[in-house]
User: Fold this.
Amino acid sequence: MNVKRMIVLAAAAYLTVLCVEVAGQIGRPLPGDPLPGLTGSEFEDFRLGLNDFTDVETAEDGLGPAFNGSSCAVCHTGLDPIGLGMENFNGIGAYRSTYGNGQPIDASGTLPDGTTFNGIVELAGILSAGDRKGEIAACAVKRLMAYALSRPVTAATDAPYVAQVTEQWSAQKYALRSLLQDVVSNDTFRLRRGGY
Assistant:
């Protein structure tokens, strides 16, 4: 598998499902870009590692260099396990149980808190339980509100509305129809003044 694709998938999952941006923030490079402030020898190591990074390998073979540097491990310890959970899906989302070379896919991983999983079904179960369920629900509310309002949802102005809709939706057992109704009946939607 292309390890870069796995990491980009994981970053997208964090952003889409948990509303956590893990790359491209100020001071954080996008996947495949060097960290700021590298010395000449560190940059050379990065350049050599980038060649390995873009090779098609199994996830387990390709993750070693990512964990070797403490700077890299800051992001990779959270991202890589999520990416491993989606390892059974190829670049267009088709399910597969082996790599192109016939080697079986190992989609197991360990989250930063020590929770282990094997495959996307177990990972989804973990991410949709306990406190994480509330995080995912709040993220879904933010995403739908941003779409409905035609603007980004910000903590400064929208946090009370997001909390209110998330609480209502939780009481309604997370039915999608209820979420849609809660968003459009909320003051932040009813009293909006247009988007961009």
The chain has a mean pLDDT of 77.
